[in-house]
Amino acid sequence: MALAADWPITVLHVDRALAEAFSAMLDRATREGRVATINRMLHSHRGAAETVRGLANDFGLDGRWDFHLFASSETGVWEGTIELTELPDCTETRKSLHDTLDAEHKAGRIARTVYDRVRGLGR
């Protein structure tokens, strides 16, 4: 509809390394009870990157589209390029997130209920 109306379109994509986002989610889960499963985090991260990459491929040369990609971390935010939408191997990332979850639970920093929910085993 925006293209049909000849409106300019701005796409903003903010990426945070999945390992950092996962650690922040575990902190939030402990404080606020807001939990995301590992599968949901992987799916959401990949889906956002694939969507932005697809839009850039389809409309990147159309002057009505403006793309801004940012990387976010605990140390700050900086503008990046389409490379921010490149994703590492999902199998290796999934293993790393499970290892982090196991270590946090074993160290007593997250409760068993949070651990189970993040693994997708509970409500």
Description:
- The chain has about 120 residues and is α+β, with helices and mostly antiparallel strands.
- The chain has one domain.
- The protein has helices at about 20-30, 40-60, 90-105, 110-120; strands spanning about 10-15, 65-75, 75-80.
- The chain has a 3-stranded mixed β-sheet.
- The radius of gyration is 17 Å and the shape is elongated.
Number of strands: 3
**Roughly what is the average pLDDT, rounded to an integer?**
92
The helix tally amounts to 4
Oligomer: single chain
- Rg is 17 Å
Our measurement of the CA-to-CA distance between the termini, rounded to an integer number of angstroms, reads 39 Å
* Proportion of strand residues: 15-25%
Largest sheet: 3 strands, mixed
Uncertain segments are none
What gross morphology would you assign? elongated
Which structural category do the helix and sheet elements fall into?
alpha+beta
- Tally of structural domains: 1
> What order do the strands of the largest sheet run in, or round the barrel if closed?
1-2-3
Helical content stands at: 40-55%
Helix-strand string: EHHEEHH
Keywords summarizing the entry:
123 residues, alpha+beta, three-stranded mixed beta sheet, 4 helices, 50% helix, elongated
Sum this structure up briefly:
This protein is α+β, with helices and mostly antiparallel strands. The protein has one domain (9-119).
